[in-house]
Amino acid sequence: MLSPEVARSVIDYALSLGADFAELFVERQLRSTLTTLSEKVDSVQSGVEFGIGLRMVFAGKVLYGYTNKPHADELKRIANELAVKDRRDPKVVATAFDFRQVEALHSGLKPLSADAMIDAKIEFLLAASRAAQRAGAQITQTKGTQLQREQHIALFNSEGLHVEDTRHYVRAVMVAIASDGSAQAHGQKDMGGLQGWELADAVDAAALGAEAGRQALVNLSARPCPGGEMPVVMGNGFGGVIFHEACGHLLETTSVAKKASVFHDQMGAQIAHTKVSAVDDGTLKNAWGSINIDDEGMATQRTQLIKNGQLTSFLVDRLGSEKTGYARTGSGRRESYKYAPASRMRNTFIEAGDDRFEDMIASIDRGIYASHLGGGSVKPGTGEFNFAVQEGYYVENGKILYPVKGATLISTGPKVLKEISMVSDNLELACGMCGSVSGAIPTTVGQPAIKVDRILVGGNA
Q1: Rounded mean pLDDT of 221-235?
Q2: The domain spanning residue 119 has which CATH number?
Q3: pTM (2 decimals)?
């Protein structure tokens, strides 16, 4: 994609302008996306994108530019424009490149570059759609989406790094809409992984659609949710989105280094209930948020963020390490060559405990079981959040009574961590996209079911 000779001349030039560090991120990406609407194919799209990002660091100040042209003159022009206000006498001499072979930890047995397999993907989505419609006569519409992406990257930097990697992403989503003539409700189920279309061999299309249909019908029959402060059991899987959004971002050095996180000075402190242990693990086999190397060329790893309630690590990229003194964790990530990397999450989840889900429900006099969470908003720095409950149930005297709608969960990440009193053994992961300063990247959220003793529930009953 870019010859080492061109990369060397550009990096040498960047250092001659006085940069302390220079890096080239080269990317070639293939994409295929198709959608279905009920029993019809709605769209089929594909494309190839190529580009190169140049990062230069001057005394901790990051300068970044990018281009689609893999020519030395073009890249040197960008370097010159970036450094126009910061150039100075050279301070660093580049180290010779030492090419490193990346260990491929995740399979890509049916890659996009070999065969887009459009017909097979359409049949998969239509099978899921038919299953959703069989869930009940009130299912009026379905929408399926299938995404496959193949990303080839190469990294060169002034410290001698030269590394290349290939990543295969695949995801399938089914949404079902239910209507009774006066109201509508929806349900959604999706699966994804760092792998090729062999995902379809492990995922039952009918089960994907049936779950989306079931959820839509449950929500259509739901009653208005009561409000107030009460105990809530949050379901496993995508329930972990609250930890990701309201706590995980506060542990990234992107915010820690600027002291924009409430946890910036809490290393070693008890920030959660002793039942809570949390991990960010980039090594999970074929998981949606996994990587072989991060977007700075460092091998991925498992990072223990919280252990028995105690803060044990942040998520640290190269620049974050320089600014905070904490060791890098292989967490430098970016959406594409158009973004400079930043410390980001990979597969982030609360670890399984030893409580039983049935005991959690039995312990509630009056509260909510939020089996599936939806979208929400989070205030950076404090972790204040407001999340919608996608599927929820009213619980009274230790029994789940009926589904509820219109529920929101309102609190802060730091507060919720201390209110968790029970953690079950049914850990499950779910895939999503995370947006931040370095763009939108694939991340996994997850948790077992957890009981939060007190949280404000917004309702409309």
Answers
A1: 97
A2: 3.30.2290.10
A3: 0.96
The distance from CA 348 to its chain's CA centroid, rounded to whole angstroms, is 8
Q: How many domains does the chain have?
A: 2
pLDDT tens digits for range 360-397? 999 999 999 999 999 888 888 889 999 999 999 999 99
362 Cβ contact partners less than 8 Å away, ≥ 6 residues apart = 398
Kindly tell me the burial class for residue 122, based on how many C-beta atoms sit within 10 Å of its own C-beta (0-12, 13-18, 19 or more): middle
Query: First CA to last CA across the chain, in angstroms?
Result: 59
C-beta of residue 25 within 8 angstroms of C-beta of residue 53: yes
Q: Same domain, yes or no, for 259 and 186?
A: no
Whether 232 contacts 415, CB under 8 Å: no
Whether 382 and 267 share a structural domain: yes
Domain boundary among 164, 196, 220: 220
CB 2 within 8 A of CB 154: yes
Neighbours of 240 (CB within 10 A): 29
Is the pLDDT score of 461 beyond 80?
A: no
DSSP E strands, 18-131: 21-37, 40-58, 61-67, 98-100
Residues β-bridged to residue 99: 162
The span from the CA of 228 to the CA of 404, in Å, is 14
pLDDT of residue 66: 98
Q: Please state, for a pLDDT cut of 70, what percent of the chain lies above it.
A: 100
Confidence of residue 6 (pLDDT cuts 50, 70, 90): very high
Strand partners, 155: 25, 163
What residue numbers bound the domain in which 182 lies? 4-220
| Full DSSP string of 111-136 | -TTT---HHHHHHHHHHHHHHHHHT-
Q: Are residues 162 and 182 in the same domain?
A: yes
Enter the tokens of residue 6.
């061109």
Structure tokens at 35: 């959608």
Identify the domain boundary among 185, 220, 255.
220
